[in-house]
Amino acid sequence: MPFGRLSRVPWLRPVVGAWPWALVAFALVAVRLSKGALLSDTYALLSRPFWPGSAQKEWLQAAQQLDQQTRLSQLELDNRRLRRLLDLQRADPGKVTAPVISREPGDWWHQLVLGAGGLQGIQPGDSVIAPGGLIGRVDSVTPTTARVALLTDTSSKVGVWVGRTQRHGLLTGVGSNRPVLRFLEKDPQVRPGDVVVTSPASTLVPPGLSVGVIQSVDEKAVPATLAVVQLSAPVASVDWVQVLTRRGPAPAGS
């Protein structure tokens, strides 16, 4: 007979109503007689599926090792950056060390903003270098900041020199991580691996600054040979630079 129908039988109603309490009493007696062993065994049985097995333990150990390796790599990167910063701070008075404080994702290969400006003696036209070589020139200045047009910016044009062949060229930004080098001669006799520096005849930047290395050469380009240059400075990840100033800091209160 179904449980619901049993509850309708008058003489069975007290039994049906009392069975939950009887079950609780039985459980309490069982726990007391087993001195808690029954309860702990039941908990262990129910929780066993959630215990970490050998595969789970290996996964946890691998995750911990990966986290430690990531932390170690970050510490090594921070140490390298600190050493570079210390090298920059040992500069001569004609160089101003400045942090990169702003960079727009949409203008990543065009410009960046420095945390130093006119008060530190920076002015438009000053050359900007990073570990590795030239990265651009100061475009505009406020008392405390300076905007830099990178060599990769489409407006950038800098005279350069290939020492091996003693050929002049014009390094032009194209808005990507590698600017192009346009030569004046039809056959400049350059090849991949040639080192590019600023031109000894340039009036915009100091001569002989490291620029990069030729990656590829297009001899069929019109009107003259064209080469793609890999910059020697890490333009994509630079966070500290030096500005080659042409005058000292502005007097206090000016």
Query: Got a strand count?
Result: 12
CATH topology of the largest domain: Thrombin, subunit H
Using only C-alpha atoms, the radius of gyration works out to 37 Å
Secondary structural class: alpha+beta
CATH homology superfamily name of the largest domain: Rod shape-determining protein MreC, domain 1
- Characterize the largest beta sheet: strand count, sense, and whether it forms a barrel: 6 strands, antiparallel, barrel
Overall average residue pLDDT: 80
- Oligomeric state: single chain
Low-confidence runs (pLDDT<50, min 5 residues)? none
Q: Strand portion, in percent?
A: 25-35%
The succession of helices and strands, N to C, reads HHHHEEEEEEEEEEEE
Strand adjacency order, main sheet: 1-2-5-4-3-12
User: What is the CATH level 1 assignment of the largest domain?
Assistant: Mainly Beta
Query: Termini distance?
Result: 102 Å
Helix content: 25-40%
Apparent shape: globular
Please provide a written account of the structure.
By secondary structure, the protein is an alpha+beta fold. The chain has two domains: 3-50, no CATH class; 95-244, Thrombin, subunit H. The chain is 28% helix and 28% strand. It has four helices and twelve strands. It has helices at residues 3-6, 13-33, 37-47, 54-89; strands at 95-102, 111-114, 127-130, 133-141, 146-150, 157-162, 167-172, 180-183, 195-198, 210-218, 226-231, 240-244. The strands form two sheets. It has a six-stranded antiparallel barrel. A hairpin with a 7-residue loop joins strand 7 (167-172) and strand 8 (180-183). The radius of gyration is 37 Å and the shape is globular. The model has no long low-confidence stretch (mean pLDDT 80).
